[in-house]
Amino acid sequence: MAKIGVLAILAAVFALLSLALVFGWFGRRSIAMLFILLCLVVAVKEFLWEIHSAEYGYRMPWIQTRLIDRVPTERQIVFHHPINEAQGDRA
To answer: Which residue spans traverse the membrane (predicted)?
Structure first.
């Protein structure tokens, strides 16, 4: 059932953008801009509806934006690869 709602909203975004294109083509720029703004509002509403979760709200835990509180102390193996200069870089 929710899939039908998503498809309806995506169809509305497509229809609004198509109407904006048609009105813009025929010289009615103010009406075209209105349809573009409506399209933007519907698209933002769809985006917010897609990312909302009952568990985290509007957070996206798969995107880490916080600083790490504690720097990892485990030793990491780093391989050293010498970089060869390309010919002609230095005269």
So the answer is: 30-49
Instruction: Dig out the tokens for 13 from the structure.
Output: 């975004």
Looking at the DSSP bridge assignments, the partners of residue 57 are: 53
**Domain boundaries of the chain, sorted by first residue:** 1-80
Q: By the 8 A CB rule, do 20 and 35 touch?
A: yes
CA dihedral sign, ordered 31, 32, 33, 39: positive
Residue 48, pLDDT score:
85
**Residue 79 tokens, joined:** 């391989």
Whether the predicted model's global pTM rises above the 0.85 cut: no
Distance CA 40, CA 13 (A): 8
Q: How far apart are the first and last CA of the chain?
A: 69
